[in-house]
Amino acid sequence: MENTQEQITQACLCELQRMVIRQANQIEDLKMEMTQLAEELSAVKDQLGKVAGEITAKVAALEAAIAAAGVVNANVEAALADVKTAAQLLDDMNPDPVV
Question: Which pTM value belongs to this model?
Answer without folding.
Answer: 0.53
